Amino acid sequence: MSLLRAVRPWTQWIAGRGFDIDKGEPDLSESDVREKIGILIGDPVIGLDIVRTSIWYVNQAYVTQYSRGRVFCGGDAVHRHPPSSGLGNNTCVQDAHNLGWKLAYSVKGWARPKLLESYSQERAPVGKQVVQRANQSRLDYAPLNACFRVQGAENAVAAGIVRFRDPGPEGVAARKAAQAALDLKQTESSTPKASR
User: How far apart, in whole angstroms, are the C-alpha atoms of residue 111 and residue 134?
Assistant: First the structure.
């Protein structure tokens, strides 16, 4: 599984790809990275500058308590998950908003300090739900990814795309599988998000 995410449209991108953790860390040599990006975009000879390579692991972590005494935490410190469904930034901003107004009211004497206890009670369940939703969204992409691959082919993605064009039963089955996978993602995206 691979993806491109614009950092500076349309000149700087993050090219990410999944790897099987049981087979060890992926090859991050310049030649392999260039080859994988070429396959991803369909142009094996495009000129590009590789700024940096790194390994990132999918997270599924959340805490059950966001505060203790005078210590308050939020954002990535209390919920870590993949970027699936785009929930991270919104959730971090919502943590800050929830805590910010409560701190202001407590410090200015407009509310009792006990108001601050509600921060963890309100935000911890949201953080847990967001982490679970983001990871489920990542898993929900598996059927769609499978549609674009032909196992055993030298270039599994290119073979998958050729299969889509096949007017015969194999092509029909591939297109139906892709529609079912898209329907699954559409159903997921129309479900209310925890961070709303």
Answer: 35
The tokens describing 18, both together, are: 């999944």
- The whole-number average pLDDT for the span 109-128 is 96
Tokens standing for residue 35: 């080859």
At 16, the amino acid letter reads G
Model confidence over 58-92: pLDDT tens digits? Answer: 889 999 999 999 999 999 999 999 888 888 899 99
Structural domains present in the chain: 2-41 (no CATH), 61-139 (3.50.50.60), 142-189 (no CATH)
Neighbouring CB atoms inside 10 A of 151's CB total: 8
Whole-number percent of the chain with pLDDT over 70: 95
Sequence length of the chain is 196
Residue type at position 43 = D
